[in-house]
Amino acid sequence: TFVNATTVALANVVNSLNFDSNTLTIDALNNRVGIGVTDPDQALEVNGSVHINDHLIVDDNTTLGDAGTDTVTVNSGIWSFVNPTTVALNDSVNSLNFDSNTLTIDALNERVGIGLTNPTYTLEVAGSAAINDNLYIGDAITDTVTVNSGAWTFVNATTVALANVVNSLNFDTNTFTIDALNNRVGIGLTNPGSTFSVLGNTSIGATYATVAAPTSGLLVEGNVGFGVTNPGSDLSVSGGVGIGSGAYITGAAPTNGLMVEGNVGIGTTNPLANLHVVGDASVSGYTYIGSGIRPATDGLKLQFKSGLNTWADGLTLIENAATNQVYVMVNGALIPQAENNAYFTLGSGALAWTAAYLVDGVYNDAGTLTVDVANRQLEGGAWQVYNTTLTVTNNADSTKNIVFDPTGTTSTITVGSGVGKIDVGTVDPPYSINGEKFSTYFSSMIGVKEEVTGNISTNEYVDGVGYRYVMDILHQPQGSDLWVFSKTANLKLNLDKLTVLLTAQSQAKVWYEVDHQNDLIAFYSSSPSTISFRMTSPRFDYETWTTKTPDRKSIGFVLNDPDTIPAVINMPEYNAEIVKKSDQLYVLNTNGKENREVGGFFTALIANLKAGMAVISEVVADNITVKQKLISPLAEIDYLETIDATVSGILYADNIEGGTVNSLNDQLSLLSGQYSTASAILADLQAKYGNYDTLMSEASTSGDVLNIADLGTPTASIPADLVLTSVSTQNLIAVDAQINGTLLANSLNSIGSDLYIQPDGNHQVHLLANLMILYPNGRVVINGDLLLTGTLYAEAVDTKEATISGKLALGTPTSPSSSDQLLSLYNPDGNLVGSVNDTGSADFKQIATGELIIAAGENASDASASGTTNSNATIGTAILPAGQTEIAIASARMDNNTLVYLTPVSDTKNQVLFVKSKQTGIGFTVAVGSNNNTQDIQFNYWLVKTK
């Protein structure tokens, strides 16, 4: 108990005073008091209910409860806000609600509801509402007021004030419209053009109120007055009248006039036209049939108007009282209306029309323009002129007329009296042959020229030249082709411009010459022949018709082909060579291509003759120079002077002179003397020795010339002048030995010099039973195998068949080739430029060929039901069947380095073939990009493998 005023001082710490744990807590450090909590975070925090029997005054912001879970209940009957108060609500749906649905404030959507909890409008009232003062609803410019009430009741006398705007009040869009701005009322429309406008029909009166009026019509039981207060007729109108819809009621009617959209009937209840009159009609002035306003004009006139703006384009009938005639004026189209007759005419007989002055044109019964007067042309298809000529006339110059004449034996077109010009792209003389139509075409000629063709025969022989035919071109039979040609080409003056093309009907060579002095043309041939000629020359007036015609009216073919600067081109040199083939025949190659031209001449004058082989019966020449060999089975020569000569047969000559021949003659004379001495010696030997054995056993070693003691020894030395039938020795040494039979020896050696076999080269040398044969011309024949451990050097190798078990290198390499290269190609620098390895793969720096055949091409094959075709060729043809979008082609050669080239050879219908996939060792798949493949597509493929 604190009897006196007491101040309790607490330590300046958190929860410096606490009653019963959390009943009352005083936080002296933060100046907070908590009831029901031990750690208040507000100046006063109460965890639980609070009951206050008297006023609660809060000077600062106050938060009651947690809007998410708690409820604040106020039992006070009255809330008083002493000062101006702003209630701030959370930005959430139904942030403030009184008695569930009495008053709801939706702060999130800015809506207020009375009598409901979920207002969908800014203010929504569920129930009746009474307003004792003015009520403003919406913005007339942008807002719309919707009333769902079935009836509106005005209890007191009411005046409706409308804004002074167009369509200030509108019911159901166009049912009823009040235009307060223009003081107009509309029924059935939203934009009345008159004080009262009705879109539709109208019924007035007790009798007609329930009767449907005519469409856009009016039923009135009593008199009707417009602009008048006392109508004396069923309808009295002071001003204009508009009846109908659209512009008929929104537009201004003529002053004291009438506009009617529907039909008007006079004397009929069922008008069938805009104006239907049953009975007579009397018009005392102009009558206009048409649209628009026609100014009044004195006189009698009936005018029909077809346009909208002017009356000058219609039909006008005018009465001329002075001449008692009716004039018809037509500007535009005058089209008859078909009734029972299909055709109409203007005038007949003596009453025919003499002229028609038209501005636009003439139309047929279908309304199609046939004669375009404005553009001066005929329209509507083909026009015909029957049984007469048609002339297109030039009034200023009749020589330029164009005449179409179908009346003669043949139809003709004459332009400019036959000397005019026709511009045309293609001329086609048509033919019908065996029921089929064919076209032929005129060829174009640059410049105006004349041509003639024909045949002549060359029968006149000219010694040393050939055969000739002479044509006197200016004196041909009158009327002949050549005579006409000479006249039209004016060859008297233009013979120098003549060109001639000649073709012989044989292998003869042909040419021509022009004798300008005598006006003659000479045709020549190497043999008698018939020659076809084609002569061309400018026409006599060719200077009039130039190729450049800037003033020509026709356009013709349009070509855009700009001229280019010519490039400097080095033409290939003419290269002709004579090549000897393996069959010993010669061929002529011209720029790498074999020339097999055959020519025949009676006499030929040749400055320089070069031939591979010449077969000549007789040769008459001042000099013949043979650089290598002259080979002939028989040659009769009066005088022959040569450096070297080889005769394989028999040489017959009365006298042969030469250093060697003279020495040979001396040796023959010496031989003849020695032969006589040797014969005497042999006779003496025969008398002295009975046989060869006696000779061998009794021979002495004296210095006798017949001493042959050494003949039976291992070494025998035979004098140069000794001739023996046979000799047997281990070593035979001879200066010269002539053996007519057989020489049997284990070896042949030459002491001190080279060993020569057939040094003169006159005869063949046969070795080992003809296994090797050496010919005087250098030819070597080996009838067996040739094994070389060294290097074979040859200018050329020609073999029918060759098998190389090792490697073959062409050229001299700078470094050894790879071990797997069976064939190696080297350039002159020793660099490898091509090879073929042991797997069959070839590598070449470049391949140039006129034709390339790769593997075995496959014929076109269809895909199976699975869309697959089998082919292991690297090049072939396949077909993608209709209805399928892809096809698989098997190929074991396929890998990632293989390129596939596709070429369609049939119509693809704008579909693109492409390689869809590749499978190594299996093949590849070809496809099209769309699913509408309606026909077979045939294509070629080529596999190219890259590194």
From TrEMBL:
Top-level taxon: Bacteria
Name this polypeptide is given: Uncharacterized protein
